[in-house]
Design brief:
10 helices, globular, binds biotin, seven-stranded mixed β-sheet
Length: 325
Amino acid sequence: MSALTFQALRTLADGRFHSGEDMARALGRSRATLSEALKLAPGLGLELFSVRGKGYRLAEPIEFIDREAVGRALGPLSGRIRLEVADEVDSTSSRLVERAAAGAPSGTCLAAEWQSAGRGRRGRSWISALGGSLTFSLLWRFDRGAGHLGGLSLAVGAAVARALADSGAERVQVKWPNDVVVDFRKLAGVLVETSGEMQGPSVAVIGVGVNYRLPERVVDRIDQPVVDVAHCSATPPSRSVLLGRMLARLAEGLEAFERQGFESVREDWRALHAYQGRRVRVVPGREAPFDAEVLDVAPDGALVVGTPAGRLHLASAEISLRGKA
Ligand code: BTN
C-alpha cells in the first residue's frame, strides 16, 4: 500500500466530502496520482465514493489509533509497554518474532492500522478492515522456561475477554483454547508464539485481532460466525481506548502468569468458558473427529472432555457445538 494512500485516507477519515483538487494540492501530488492511490481503498475493506463536483468521501469515518489516548487508557501500567503504531505491516506478529530474536525488550507492542498478511491459528489468514479491526502484537519475556508456558494462550484469551467486558461488550466469553466469543460468534482471536529454553528464560509474541466494526463485505469473506464490538456494546469505546484497556489487562495477566502460571487465572477462565458442560464435536489435528462433553480445563490448559471411552486431555484440537446451544 502506498504512503500516499494512507495520507489521503487520513484526510478522508472524517467521513466528509473532500475535493480531489484540494487534496492533491495539499499532498503535493497530481490529481491522477491521488486517484490511483485511492483505487487501493477497497482492498483495505473501505467503501469510497467519488462524486463529480464534490470529490471523495468514505462511506464510514475512520478513527486512526491515537498513541496518547492509548497511553491514557493504559494508566499506571503505561510504563510496562513500549507502543509503536504502524500504518501497514505484513503481520505484527511476524515483525515482533523477528524483533524478539534481535533482543527487543519485554513490553514491546506493535499495532498496525493495516496488515497485508495477518496470520490466524492453524495457518489460517486473519481478515480485517482498516479502522474496522484492532490488530496488535505484544512481546513478553518470562524467566520461566518455554516448557512452563502451558495455558499462556488461555490466560491471554481471558485478559482480552475481560478488557472487552470492561469496555461495555455484553455476554463476552471464551472458547477453548483462546477465542473470545459472544453468543458463540467470534469477537477476537489470539495467536501466541513462544520460543526459548525449556528451563528459561523464554519469550512469547502474543498476537491479538479484534473485530471492531466490520463492514458486511468483509464479514462475507470470513468462513466462520463473527460479531464485532460495535454490535455487542451500547457505547463502544474508541479503538485507542480499547487498545489501552487490553494492554493494561494483558500486562496484569502476564505478570500474574509469570508468578503462578495458568493457576493464576484458571478459576476465572472456567467461569468465562462458553463451552463448559456442552456436548461438542472434537476435531483433533490428525485423528478422526469424535463427540464428547466438556468437563473442565486442566492445570496445564488442556481441555478435559468425557467420552464413552473415558476422560481425555486435549492439548490441541478444534471444538464446535454439537446439537442445540
Ligand atoms: C486466530 O486464528 O483466532 C488468531 C488470530 C490472531 C490475529 C492477530 S492480528 C495481530 C496479530 N498479527 C497476526 O498476523 N496475527 C495476530
